[in-house]
Design goal:
Blueprint: H1 2-14, H2 26-35, H3 41-54, H4 58-63, H5 66-73, H6 80-96, H7 104-107, H8 115-126, H9 135-145, H10 152-165, H11 171-184, H12 203-206, E1 225-235, E2 238-243, E3 254-255, E4 258-260, H13 267-279, E5 282-295, E6 300-312, E7 322-326, H14 338-341, H15 344-350
Length: about 350
């Protein structure tokens, strides 16, 4: 078909050789798809390369410690992906004797793999005829088909078009071509229509209505903002840290204890209360360390860090998975949330003032 021939030809001429495109190893292709979920390509590349050196096979992932896995994922975000990926690797070893399944439906039974990811792995790693639909593909299709929205009826039209036009001999290249086209040519705000290899199929281009598609929903909702207080708790020259429970935000990472400030308390009172609620201990809040502004996907925080001195109480994990005492120079070896990293230099350079 002219459509898939044109776009694949364009892809071969313009494709970027990302490291996961230089391999046929299903494990590495699978890893790249997990890392690329809600994360930009340029961010993923260094993480992917470091991960492959440390964990060259799914067996290495399956037997790795939490600290190692999360340390190599540290800063990439959406940490639930790490837990799911390890569980899925274990399942492949147990159910499929270490051989990653090539069928979309079988792939979807693995933790962390949904419709898009299963289609991507099946088509790219195993040349199975499964088309992918991500944000880039949806935008391209909205313009090609003049779709007003992504309603059920619109998605039926989109699915029908892709099922009829996907390359039967090179489905993986077809999928990557469409995604690259959306990322580099059919951009959200200023599409480069003059460089598009499939403009002959684009109804929006032909009708000179390219700016109308896709229709953008106005964002009226403002993300909430929180003031957060955390304590660097010193006890006999060591620092008390806690590990967040898995399957929660930032689950599996270590952190300095603390939490959200209430309206009726100052930040020092917040730190004392939060630490008692989390660990059943009393601390004395000492000198100020630093303030960190940090944004997450759905909210933002202003984090206030203070040195604290352990006073009394038997340490008990009321909300965390576990706790431990570490030497100051150990903080760089453990996985922490990004916002906590801004506190590290103040600890390493000064210690307890």
């Amino acid at each position: 078909m002219k459509f898939n021939r044109k776009i694949i030809s364009w892809y071969y001429e313009h494709k970027v050789d990302f490291p996961w495109r230089l391999t046929s190893d299903p494990y590495k292709i699978w890893l790249s798809e997990i890392m690329l979920q809600q994360t930009q390509v340029k961010t993923v590349i260094p993480y992917y390369e470091k991960w492959i050196k440390k964990f060259p096979s799914l067996y290495d992932v399956a037997k790795a410690s939490d600290e190692d896995l999360f340390k190599y994922w540290e800063g990439l975000g959406y940490y639930n992906r790490v837990n799911n990926f390890r569980e899925a690797c274990k399942a492949v070893i147990k159910i499929y004797n270490g051989k990653i399944p090539d069928d979309k439906n079988d792939l979807m039974q693995l933790k962390g793999i949904g419709d898009y990811t299963s289609s991507a792995i099946a088509s790219i790693a195993f040349n199975k005829v499964n088309y992918v639909i991500d944000g880039n593909v949806k935008r391209v299709m909205a313009r090609i088909l003049c779709l007003d929205d992504y309603s059920k009826s619109a998605m039926q039209k989109l699915n029908h078009f892709l099922s009829k036009n996907i390359s039967l001999s090179k489905p993986g290249d077809f999928n990557q071509a469409l995604m690259d086209l959306g990322r580099n040519i059919c951009k959200p705000k200023i599409p480069l229509c003059s460089q598009c290899p499939i403009d002959f199929s684009c109804r929006a281009k032909i009708s000179k209505s390219i700016k109308k598609y896709p229709k953008v929903k106005s964002k009226n909702k403002k993300n909430p903002h929180y003031n957060v207080g955390v304590g660097v708790i010193w006890k006999n020259g060591e620092i008390l840290i806690t590990k967040r429970k898995k399957n929660t935000l930032l689950g599996g990472l270590w952190e300095f204890p603390g939490g959200k400030q209430k309206s009726n308390e100052n930040i020092k009172e917040c730190i004392e209360r939060e630490i008692y609620e989390e660990l059943s201990i009393n601390v004395k809040v000492l000198n100020y360390i630093t303030t960190v502004e940090h944004k997450y996907s759905h909210f933002s925080i202003t984090l206030h860090a203070y040195h604290c001195e352990f006073e009394k109480g038997k340490i008990k994990c009321n909300t965390a998975e576990k706790w431990k005492l570490i030497k100051p120079d150990q903080i760089m070896t453990l996985p922490f949330p990004k916002a906590n990293h801004y506190i590290f230099p103040h600890i390493l350079n000064k210690g307890l003032a």
